[in-house]
Amino acid sequence: MDALPRFPAGFRWGTATASYQIEGAVRADGRGASVWDSFCAEPGRVKNGDTGETACDHYHRWPEDVALMAGLGADAYRFSVAWPRVQPDGRGPANAQGLDFYDRLVDALLDRGIAPYLTLYHWDLPQALEDDGGWTARDTAHRFADYTALVADRLGDRVAAWITLNEPFVHMSEGYSLGTHAPGRMLLLDALPAAHHLLLGHGLAVPVLRERVSGQVMLTNNYSPVWPAADTPADRAAADAFDALQNRLFTDPVLLGRYPDLSAYGVMELPFVQDGDLALISAPLDGLGVNYYSPTRIASPAGAAQHEGPTVLGEVGERIQEAGLPFQDTPIEGYPVTAFGWPVVPDALHELLTGLRAAYGTALPPITITENGCSSHDEPGSPDDDRVTYLDGHLRALHRAITDGVDVRGYFVWSLLDNFEWAEGYSQRFGLVHVDFETQKRTPKASYHWLRAQLEAQHRPDDQ
């Protein structure tokens, strides 16, 4: 396989993780309960009854994991802070032991020349706040701003980039609308207040960060190019309706100061939006995080019956069908698939990035790919060819987008470690490093070694 083309000088190379997926130690040092602790305790919610109670035990093994990042040659690391580790009940003063953990981690990263990219919220809401309504309650947005201040006051002088929210669409849709993720509520379109309050939490956090930190301020969304299943008015309308939720609901308010048209869902007004909210939400950002895994092929509910086979959305798609929403996902054929069943379409990353630039123009801030990767059925010593091919193809598509003028500043592989993959438990392995969850032994995979060689080549002087 040929070496990757040279990326721009200063381009960030990193890996990404999330607190509940790797930390474990859910009862250690004053950490409070999160919605994911509660969700995992409910029978049937997570495959095989798996939980994040131990996960990768990163809370205790973080020095080994930082050494793995350094060995890879990464110069950045995206991680998330567990809100209930900092504020056990989501309110009040900080839990000093929780902040101490992240303080040690940040210092260790900097000692290795690795820039910390910190995500404040990657779905592990304190259960006490969920008991009071969670993100359907406006007060949660204000509690998020308070929590942001606690973390920023402790780490604000050393973190390169601050990401307020991770994939709020997924958290709203699967956690509050369809019930397939924590907190497991099935509110359907009545979950739209949660969408707004997540965005309001972001908007309230931005000025808090501006006052306290020296690093960039960002938001990360997950995006999926939406393809109509057929070139018919009904399927095109269904694709537009899905695009409004997946790609625009959490982007238009941030970049344009307005919500997309939701009339396809019978939503004509948003009574929970108060005066001044959109001005807060649309405050300028230093960057937009983009998570990309695959495109989605969408049909009208009537047209979906013509298509059979596995789909990108899986169980979520089944819930959508049951809910009677105005679209249905359909199979994408003709491409290899990951262990998750997601089609591998590197060119769709180029399509996504150039499409964002076309849609938002000068309102689009510089982009960082904050997640991209694939699950594979691999064990220590296996060839890992699928993951190498996946990363190679997507990085080449990313380079083409940069060549075509899209301002992309970095790329983070999901994930450094095999980890707890939410409702799939430990059945999906995304890591560059294999984790034996019984012994916690870490074993770098072939993709780790491939990427290390690629990064060495990226940093080699042009005349060598």
From TrEMBL:
Under catalytic activity, the entry for this protein gives: Hydrolysis of terminal, non-reducing beta-D-glucosyl residues with release of beta-D-glucose
Tell me the leader sequence span: none
Q: What is its EC number?
A: 3.2.1.21
Q: Which domain of life is it from?
A: Bacteria
Query: Which keywords annotate this record?
Result: Carbohydrate metabolism, Cellulose degradation, Glycosidase, Hydrolase, Polysaccharide degradation
Against InterPro entries, the record matches this protein to:
GH, GH_1_N_CS, Glyco_hydro_1, Glyco_hydro_1_beta-glucosidase
The protein's enzyme class: hydrolase
The UniProt family comment states:
Belongs to the glycosyl hydrolase 1 family.
**Would you tell me the protein name for this molecule?**
Beta-glucosidase
Species: Actinocorallia libanotica
The lineage, from the top, is: Bacteria, Bacillati, Actinomycetota, Actinomycetes, Streptosporangiales
